[in-house]
């Protein structure tokens, strides 16, 4: 029989809270953009880039969260490695660029978008998620130096 112990202490830490919020905001962004994706729109590649970036980091963060919850050893070691810090760096930059491109395009375009509010909400959630990745990177960096 498979015995899985859930590391609930991780969810009580700042890293756990940030990871959980990143997954929730990522799911919200994917839900907003994915539910109304229109390939005939003039925003096609911008929406597609945002959807791909958000989906990629949602899946990666979800895998991190699950591995931290099922393995206390992983939760104590992985944040101290360069892997997680690089992941947060790439997530921060790519999500920021994707959110910024989308928000600028819907504001600067000469056309009215029927889903303006949805696109604006998704891009704002993406920017908030960017801040969460910055905070996670900062906590991962502080965790590394606290234990050395």
TrEMBL record:
Major localisation: membrane
Parts of the chain that traverse the membrane: 20-37, 49-74, 86-108, 120-142
Any one of the GO CC terms: membrane
MARVEL domain boundaries: 10-145
InterPro entries, A to Z: Marvel (IPR008253), MARVEL-CKLF_proteins (IPR050578)
Keywords: Membrane, Transmembrane, Transmembrane helix
Top-level taxon in the UniProt lineage: Eukaryota
Membrane topology: Multi-pass membrane protein
Annotated compartments: Membrane
Designated name of the protein: Uncharacterized protein LOC112453588
Gene coding for it: LOC112453588
């Amino acid at each position: 029989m498979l015995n899985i112990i859930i590391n609930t202490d991780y969810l009580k830490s700042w890293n756990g809270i940030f990871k959980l919020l990143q997954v929730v905001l990522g799911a919200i962004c994917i839900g907003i953009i994915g539910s109304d994706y229109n390939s005939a729109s003039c925003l096609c590649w911008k929406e597609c880039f945002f959807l791909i970036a958000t989906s990629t980091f949602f899946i990666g963060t979800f895998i991190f969260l699950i591995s931290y919850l099922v393995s206390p050893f992983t939760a104590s070691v992985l944040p101290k490695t360069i892997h997680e810090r690089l992941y947060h760096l790439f997530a921060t930059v790519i999500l920021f660029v994707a959110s910024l491109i989308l928000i600028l395009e819907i504001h600067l375009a000469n056309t009215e978008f029927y889903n303006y509010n949805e696109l604006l909400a998704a891009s704002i959630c993406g920017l908030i998620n960017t801040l969460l990745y910055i905070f996670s990177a900062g906590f991962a960096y502080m965790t590394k130096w606290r234990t050395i």
